[in-house]
Amino acid sequence: MTKRSPFRYFRTSPEVIRLAVMMYIRFPLSLRNVEDLLHERGIDVSYESVRFWWQRFGPKFASEIRIKRSQSMRHHSNWKWHLDEMFVKINGERHYLWRALDHEGEVLESYVTKARDKKAALKFLKKSMRRYGRPKAIVTDKLRSYGAALKNLGNADLQETGRWLNNRAENSHLPFRRRERAMQRFRRLRSLQKFAAVHASVLNLFNSERSLCSRSNFKLNRAAALAEWRGLCAD
Q1: What is the number of domains present in the chain?
Q2: Can you give the residue range of the structural domain that contains 93?
Q3: 166 lies in a domain?
Q4: I need a surface site. Which of 1, 65, 175, 178 has the fewest CB within 10 A?
Q5: How far apart are CA 211 and CA 216, in angstroms?
Q6: Considering Cα of 103, then 107, then 109, then 111, what sign does the dihedral take?
Q7: What is the pLDDT of residues 147-203, one digit of tens each?
Q8: Burial bucket for residue 60 (CB in 10 Å: 0-12, 13-18, 19+)
Q9: Paired strand residues for 43
């Protein structure tokens, strides 16, 4: 049975939809910024269309990216995770965005909770391990909720803590903070969870660690990432 295209009910071409979604999620742009940039390219769409497209297709694109990358990542011989949580305000109320990264900086999982306790850490760890399996080591800060949750799972021996060991997770907050400012914060927990998950997958795809490779290799990686993006949901 032939799989039906998710773009079948849209008059706008899939190429334009993919471009608009990529611009909004990848770069710190508002919906109206994306509308103006598309207009300069001769594409007349409303910012409300951009909003609808990213909400409709963002999770689909993110899921496809995640499926393609998850199997190749989990069997690495140096499979180490970095866990951290960041404060995010929703309508003035503090929430916590838990994030797991691997040793190469790939964002594995994002999870939003209202509390920062053992129950939240345990749920976050279970969700991450269910999807990616068990790592070789887990680097965390000194929040006691991590230790309690790992002890509950029987993986207390995996935990590593240190003053600078978790810098990778700390530095990974910067792209999300830039997007948060451009969006003027979030208004609902559900929208934060949705955007964080989509943003993580898109960041993984286009993050070529520019400072660590030559110009020629960076151009090849960037071209490969764009080619993969343009092929999402194409079948």
Answers
A1: 1
A2: 77-187
A3: yes
A4: 1
A5: 12
A6: positive
A7: 999 999 999 999 999 878 888 888 888 889 988 888 888 888 999 999 999 999 999
A8: middle
A9: none
